[in-house]
Amino acid sequence: MTISSPDQVGSKEAKKILAVARGETLASPPVWLMRQAGRYLPEYREVRAKAKDFLDFCYTPELAIEATLQPVTRFGMDAAILFSDILVIPDALGQRVRFLEGEGPVLDALQGEADLAKLNSDRLIDHLQPVYAALKGVRERLDPNRTLIGFAGAPWTVATYMIEGRGSKDHALARLWAYEHPVRMARLMDLLIEAISTHLIGQLDAGADIVQIFDSWAGVLPDSLLWFLSIEPTARIVTRVREQKPDALIIGFPRAIGDRYPLYQRETGVDVVGLDTSLSISGLGRELQKIGPVQGNLDPIALLAGGDALKREVETILEALGRGPFIFNLGHGILKETPIPHVEQLVEMIRAWRA
Ligand code: 1CP
User: Fold this and answer.
1) Closest residue to atom 46 of ligand 1, CA basis
2) Which residues, 6+ apart, have CB-to-CB distance to 255 below 8 Å?
3) Residue 101: its pLDDT value, please?
4) pTM for the full predicted model
5) Considering the domain 3-352, what is its CATH architecture?
6) Where are the domains of the chain?
7) How confident is the model over 279-303, as pLDDT tens digits?
8) Ligand 1 atom nearest residue 153's Cα
9) What sign has the CA pseudo-torsion 295, 150, 166, 54?
10) Of all protein residues, whose CA lies closest to atom 2 belonging to ligand 1?
11) Is the pLDDT of residue 330 over 50?
């Protein structure tokens, strides 16, 4: 049976994001937003209040399912992204992770060899069962025309939290590790590559249609470290996942790496590259799109602003990238202060636009 929809030009794929990830151009691009389930939604805050703490929220399938579906129900997004966090990986490896109210994540920072040796991937799959249960639950309830996205942090981005013990601006401590202890850092990368690959395969087995690898802090790395800590580890994850899941579709988001995007696109083998806000869409963005599908890159602050400013930004992005394989998204996660009507305005504009 051929499923067709008015928004798709000759596509047999009912899930628009998958059609684009395989290289198709749609008349009107699909849309989802990074961090679309979150505090800007009153219904999220309600579910959040039912959980003991943030990790308990992630590991309670009924709550995670509800949070995952909320933005799809409210805005009609083309994808649901699993409600979870990149820090379930250190937690599953046995490092202590807590989310403190108003402070964000706090981990018992890795101090050296001894702490590294304590990390244990044997129980990873068992520990993450609630995450896979949530994906299965979402799969059962999600409209079959919508894409279900699984995700993980990239090794470097996860490692910054493991080494620093919390979020930081410049990730100096993690970079210092890489310069001063390259062997130790390589061991941490190996461990994370294995753990993240296993987790992505687990998510694909549980019903995710596609997965995204968030390398949110890749932009602070100079070339030599970018290769060693971001591009090569990501390439290895892509290879590992495809060994078990040859058709796996993967989005890579190496935030703020600037003119090194083409290298990342070429060398990692991801199907779609996620563009951050600072990337020039009319220049580099279009170059990248000649090679493969791209996703992005509305400034989350423009979404916060709304009105004419938002309209102008959205039009510029659609005009630059909408006539090739393109998934509309933000250039980084949605902010918790974002007014809901602005998200509605955004989705309406994208739906109304034609290539
Ligand atoms: O109590 C709360 O509600 C805390 C806010 C929150 C939320 C909603 C955190 C804590 N994590 C999440 C969910 C989350 N995190 C998702 C869910 C799916 C979605 O709707 O998109 C995803 C994909 C993430 C990914 C994530 N977590 C990233 C990568 C993406 C990015 O924004 O760069 C990172 C860096 C994290 C770490 C993290 N978790 C939470 C916070 C506040 C942070 C950032 C800490 C920092 O500032 O460094």
Assistant:
1) 167
2) 214, 215, 216, 217, 218, 219, 274, 276, 332
3) 87
4) 0.96
5) Alpha-Beta Barrel (3.20)
6) 3-352
7) 999 999 999 999 999 999 999 999 9
8) 29
9) positive
10) 54
11) yes
